Amino acid sequence: MLKAFLKADVIISVILFAVSLYLLSEIKIYDSGSVYGKLGPAYWPKFVLYMIMFLSVGVAFFSIKGVLQGTIPPFERLQFSSANLRFGAAVALIAGYLLLLPYVGFLVLTPLQMIAFMFLLGERNKVLIFSIPFVLTLGIVLLFTKVMYVPLPRGAGVFLEISHLLY
Amino acid sequence: MLSVKKCFRLSVLAVSSFLLAFTAQAGDGPDGYPERPIEVVVQYGAGGGSDNFVRNLMMPAAEILGVNINVTNMTGGAGVKASKYVLAQPADGYTIYNFSPEQLINTVLGRENYSEEFAPLVQVQQDMSMFYVNPDNKNFQTAEELIAYAKANPGKVQFTGTTPTSPDEIIIMRFAKAAGIDVKYVPFDKAPKSHAAVLGGHLDVLHEEPGSVISLIEAKKLIPIIVFNDKRLDKFPEVPTSVELGIDITSGRWRGLAVKKGTPQPIVDYLADALKKAADSESYQKYQAAALLDQRPGWKGPEEFGKFWEEEYQANKEILTELGYVK
Amino acid sequence: MEIWFTAFHNVFSPMAMLFICGGVLMGVMLGAIPGLNSTMGTALLIPFTYAMDATTGLLLLAAVYCGGTFGGSISAILFNVPGSPEASVTGFDGYPMAKAGKAGKALGIAILCSCIGGLFSVGIMNLISPQLAKVALSFSEPEYFALAFAALTLIASLGGTKMTKAFLVGFVGLLIATIGIDPMSGVERLTFGWSGLIGGVNFIVALIGAFAIGEILMTAEKGSKIDGEEEVKVSTEFPSLVEMLKLKWNVLRSAVIGTLIGILPGVGATTASFVGYSEAVRWSKHPEKFGTGIADGIAAPETCNNAAAGGAMVPLLTLGIPGSATTAVIIGGFMVHGLQPGPMLFLNQPDLMYSIFLAMYVSNVFMLFAGVIVAKLFSNFRKIRYSILGPCIFVFATVGAFGISNSMSDVWIMFAFGLLGYVMKKYDYSVAPLIIALVLGGLAEESLRRGMRMEDYDLIAFLSRPISGTILAVALATFLYTLYSRMRHKPNLLAGEMKQPSL
């Protein structure tokens, strides 16, 4: 019985239901003031939230029913493996890159991130690892900032000075 | 079909902008300013009225300042995103902002705080507000008929413009209040949709600056019924002014520039001076005439522009509170 | 006839041809690179057109516009990162097809259908522009709502066998579409005080996240044994006549839908391609195959978006009202020469108009070559193994998301959708309904609320207009029929989780 409730679909449904319930209370405050007319800013999101709650109950119901009837395989124990580690490292690498980008700037940070990422994905060819990131970054910086005027992040402090050398 | 002369002009333009992009030299402003490209941030999409204004002004300005000027569009969130970006840059005069009435309105609504954040540079244009109706509108074809009809049918006349809590809505509601009528405002997120709604006869009255609908006026697909000004325009001598009708509203959309607060005064003055020259240039004047932006004097220097912000802010605050947008 | 002669003379001069061909090539390139698009390209070209005469300048802009509408599909098919918003849907079937080793075929279908769609709409525009403009103006909010509603109900068929899940995902997409400043009231919704959300969630950012970043995370988890297609030679392969004949009704329908939607002011090629895809699903004999990499799923959106690009020129040239973002910029191209596009220009300078028509015919034909050239260039990247390609795609996804409105917050939103896409892929939720709802949700909500306000909240008046009523009735009927046939024949599939991997 418990195994039926630990299915991913059931967990996702419960989360969606709870979040919707919270957002409903958040949304009610939008509908004050007659200036908005009868269908105010909360009208549509409210309808959408009710539908999400209804459908998440549906998804959870079908999932549990499926497991109990044996048409869907039940929950299996999560096993920790190197795959989870690699996934975690990839997420950390991306998050770290985005966090540092405004401070270090695109020009300096991007090659470093790419080198780390290539290592993570199992690339071992040193020549490629240490050439492609620099070539690509330089290419993008020239194309985006010089030709198309996209203001890629420049960083702050000493990194700002470095970026200003090029764009 | 390029003539030799045009070919030559084209290649000179291409080569010079290419060189400008790759060289950095000291400018002749205070402390060698500007020594690298200047960025101008526009909070509206490419091709809109503000974007056209900035791009047409910056073409001659780049030549005067001797550096490249890059126009960046950062759309979304009534300009809040663009404002935040400008505020995240150093106050060194290398980032200029297309300051619009929306920043003052956002301050009223509590999303921004213009007086703490931006320093006025110059106002360049003073556009005009006009109302238009469809020639097939059976209920009214003039401003007087509109007011009479709206008095007989309160809440039935449908006005349209761009986005809620916008300068469009403010001027429509100020008009309604002054005329003593009760109207309905139906906003669209993009100006072209509001034009189409009146052309298709789905809504009654359009608020718009004449520059973007001039072809429709000339083709008699839209009939201008009022211009918010104290004297009639040379271009449309038959259109009555608001003042003639006893409505004391002459405001319209203005377009100008600002920098982040804290930018050194010499740089502000230098930029204001350069922009004045750019606004007087032949190419800018040609654009201004084509877009009907030369009907009212629009130039304001930094100090004058700053005072104007104060007045506008107070006026907007009053009407938005009355409408119920501010509690 | 004389007008055509002048136009012919204008367009087929060596200089003009050079600009048109160069413009198309540039447009395709800009479209194919994520983060750059033809709207930016045309905006940047306008100062240069100032130095040309009006006709040449406008021919160049029109050529870039035509090419840019197609270009995005190349990167959508090859890497699942659409280079431009118009190409978003193309990846739904294009990428699975490329993964199955038929990238060349997918590109061939995309290029050919783009060309057909483009030529169809230019032909229509050339012949009956003024009449079409009238049709476009007769559309009001109820019709817009009906269009959005019809496309949204197709989510039922898109989820394949998992209908409740598809709808759940669809409604989550509708919820995300409400984030930001409400266009009807100006109220900030669900931003939680973060200025990054105040402008709403851009669907292209969400799409790049859910597809590209989601896939990168998925492969990172899978590990190092990922090779590129070093043996596979990706070269564009045009579909045979027999294959094209199979697609004929689909292409024709998509061309008509694309042109019609393109004409509507403010609704561009992106919406057109979504609606075209949905309609292809509705009238298909095997709707469940969409999303698995079938030719119909590429032909429909590609025909549609290029047809819409031509369609968007109709209100621009006849009324001076831009039908899309790029056409708005093209107005600027008229204005630097002191011209105002609109009814008067159409009367006063017909030779200029016909030159533009002719240039668009030429551009669409030349697109066949430009498409093949750029596709060739880009397909070389597919041969690279994923340990190199993955990080490169990530960087392009980042600058692509950043370039939408030059803001870091969009890049963070992309990352969040990357995680979401990963979870959805892992637990077998289809991403397409999320994106469709995100694109059409705003249109559906706005047109409903605005239309009801215009009708003084009279629901009957809102629903009982001939065009919108018909569209709504057809949409409702097909929806109920799908529901009925699922319930009746395959009761399990309604819940359906037949071969779902366990947690």
- Name the pair of protein chains with the most residues at their interface, and give those residue counts: A-C, 78 and 71 residues
Low-confidence stretches of chain C: 491-503
Structure summary, number of beta strands of chain B: 10
Number of helices of chain C: 23
* Major β-sheet profile of chain C: 2 strands, antiparallel
Number of strands of chain C: 2
**What's the CATH H-level superfamily name of the largest domain in chain B?**
Bordetella uptake gene, domain 1
How are helices and strands ordered from N to C of chain C? HHHHHHHHEEHHHHHHHHHHHHHHH
| Rg of chain C, alpha carbons | 22 Å
Question: What is the percentage of strand-forming residues of chain C?
Answer: under 5%
Distance between the termini of chain B: 61 Å
Radius of gyration of chain B: 21 Å
Protein name (chain C): Putative tricarboxylic transport membrane protein
Pfam families (chain C): TctA
Keywords (chain C): Membrane, Transmembrane, Transmembrane helix
InterPro entries (chain C): DUF112_TM (IPR002823)
Task: Please provide a brief summary of the model.
Chain A: This is Tripartite tricarboxylate transporter TctB family protein. With 167 residues, chain A is an all-alpha fold. Chain A has helices at 2-5, 8-27, 43-69, 82-104, 106-120, 126-147, 158-166.
Description of the structure:
Chain B: This is Tripartite-type tricarboxylate transporter, receptor component TctC. Chain B: Residues 1-26 form the signal peptide. Chain B: It holds the Pfam family TctC. The complex is a heterotrimer of chains A (167), B (327) and C (503). Chain A has 167 residues and is mainly alpha-helical. Chain A has 2 domains: 2-69; 82-166, no CATH class. Chain A has helices at residues 2-5, 8-27, 43-69, 82-104, 106-120, 126-147, 158-166. In chain A, helix 2 (8-27) packs antiparallel against helix 3 (43-69) and helix 4 (82-104) runs antiparallel to helix 5 (106-120). The longest helix of chain A is centred in the middle third of the chain and has 27 residues, at 43-69. Chain A starts with a helix and ends with a helix. Chain B is α/β, with parallel strands linked by helices. Chain B has 2 domains: 14-127 and 253-323, Bordetella uptake gene, domain 1 (D-Maltodextrin-Binding Protein, domain 2), CATH 3.40.190; 130-227, D-Maltodextrin-Binding Protein, domain 2, CATH 3.40.190.10. Chain B is built from 12 helices and 10 strands. Chain B has helices at residues 4-22, 49-65, 80-88, 101-108, 114-117, 143-152, 167-179, 191-199, 214-218, 265-279, 282-290, 302-323, and strands spanning 38-42, 69-73, 95-97, 118-126, 130-133, 158-162, 184-188, 205-208, 223-227, 254-260. In chain B, helix 2 (49-65) packs antiparallel against helix 11 (282-290) and helix 4 crosses helix 12 (302-323). Chain C is mainly alpha-helical and 503 residues long. Chain C has one domain. Chain C is 74% helix and 1% strand. Chain C has helices spanning 2-11, 14-32, 38-49, 54-79, 90-138, 141-153, 155-158, 163-177, 203-222, 241-246, 248-263, 269-283, 295-311, 313-319, 325-335, 343-348, 350-379, 386-405, 408-426, 432-454, 459-463, 466-489, 491-495; strands spanning 180-181, 188-189. A two-stranded antiparallel sheet of chain C has the order 1-2. In chain C, helix 18 (386-405) crosses helix 19. The relative contact order of chain C is 0.18. Chains in contact: A-B, A-C, B-C. The interface between A and B is small, with 10 and 12 residues.
